[in-house]
Amino acid sequence: MMRGLQTPVRAIRRRVFTEVAKLGFKADADTLLTDMEAIPYEIVNDDTEEKYRESTYRARAIVRERLRLAMGLSLRPENKPVHLTAGVEASNISEKYYEPPLMQVIPSACERCEENKYEVSNMCKGCLAHPCQEVCPKGAISMVNGKSFIDQEKCIKCGKCKSVCPYDAIAKKERPCKNACGVGAIVSDKYGRAYIDTEKCVSCGMCMVSCPFGAISDKSQIFQLTRALQEGGEIVAEIAPAFVGQFGDNITPRNIKAALQELGFSEVYEVALGADIGAISEAHHYVEKVVSGELPFLLTSCCPSWAMMAKKFFPDLIDQISQELTPMVATARTIKQEHPNARVVFIGPCAAKKLEASRRTVRSDVDFVVTYEELQAMFDAKEIDLTKYSAESSFHDATGAGRGYACAGGVAEAIEKCVNEYYPGVDVNIEHAEGLAECKKILTLAKAGRMNGCLIEGMGCPGGCIAGAGTNIPVAKAKKALANYVKNSTNDIPPSELAEIELK
After folding, report:
1. 48-66 per-position pLDDT tens digit
2. What's the structural domain count of the chain?
3. Same domain, 302 and 260
């Protein structure tokens, strides 16, 4: 699992984001195009210590496409000349800018990994038993020069040979991005390169963080946001609870709040506030609708990839998806009630939130979405060392239940705690799935009537939000940091009156 590891792929992504943030903070329309054209040469040059590709020219070409995606633009077509800066005029704004699709494969970066293939490695001992040959149903394995050999024309990729080899000498080659996609959205183009089927994709970003060559990337709003911050005005940040540990081992909420204010944010809220509202509301919803028998089961809605997958692949279950506001939206509406003229920026671990914030019903609530990865690049652009900043106060206080939303199983646990507290004697049947493949399985069971009476939590990323595509640290480290944050919360569960809040 590569999520959170500081690889050269992450290094070059961060460098591109940093340079784009600098463009936004500079906000010089006269030099924008020239500055943009110079970035690939600044990142990839003869003095670059780490060669990202076998060719400087190829590395630079890939950076150009990354640059366009980081500016919010789409990749250039391969079959006609389009300048690097084409379309920049439209994206050079201090407002939300989005060109679908969110996730794109950079063709020049794709190494055309084999999708599914079994090969004999040099670990083969040419043993007397040759069980691989004996179990092959198609006679695809023979002995060549004293070693096992697989005839790819006959092989049906059943994997029986691999399962019986006593030396683990048979390797299964898979396309990492395809293997990571739980909805089968990764296909091959006519050149054998990865391609994303947008009809199936739910933008979880697991393909992006699983590609060892960094050939998949999402679009960013970092340029438009930094422009807005440079222009000034009231801009309020809402930061998801998975933030703990993402910016350094000893970085506190006060450090982060002060650093965000240094960037230009006027105030900072914790998204766990919206999670608290959601937890108590969904507890009431579960008791009133599922326990009463009105609904067969209830699906949580806070993960946009999970909710999008349910709507795309299981349209018959739409009525069972919770209609409560997601924590991002609930917090944003709370902010806008208190700061009606403010623009709201969601900062979190999730790439798919960029799509949620672009929905017609949400666009007016959330003005920008950036990930922790992108925020770190903004700090880099301004040369902000978080250890040197500390606010007088922390974020607006939230409960342990709301903060626990960031970990797989945490949403259902928060709702269960609220039911146990406010509806004593009512049993809660909990089911949860993490990773879209498992989510798909549990929805199949639900559709078949095998989950009746259940509260079903789905998380698109294995591990939950702490394992999102926009995180900075390994999942295990993030899980430990979040557990401590939840444990040290002043209150365990939200008060019942939160359910009565009107957030129109």
Report:
1. 655 678 788 899 999 999 9
2. 3
3. yes
